[in-house]
Specification:
alpha+beta; about 35% helix; about 120 residues; 2 helices; 5 strands; five-stranded antiparallel beta sheet; Alpha-D-Glucose-1,6-Bisphosphate, Chain A, domain 4
Length: about 120
Amino acid sequence: MLPPRRAASRFISSIGRWLLGLPGWSMPVCEVDLRVGGAYRYVWRRDTDGQEIGMGGVYREIVAPKRIVSTEKFDQAWYREADPPLRLTGSARRRAQVRDVAASYDRLEGVLAEMAAR
């Protein structure tokens, strides 16, 4: 088993491989300073047209391996102002979120299996 700091470092370096949502997106920027007061920044890029979505935040609390509390702010709205409002309520919103998150967690499972095999 890896020492905790080394395991955390390997995990952080893998974020850009799995935290992508649906297929067709990449993460050209993935910066993580995993300590209380440290910042993180992610930028996702849609491969078909180069559209980018960026976000970042600051780690407020870290209780390894149980909890990480951080702020989160997107650089810009990830929807077009001209679009009519779309309201997803209850189960429809959860299904959309679960679909996007599930794609990332499916990738994470593969990354963790690779890490364990090393």
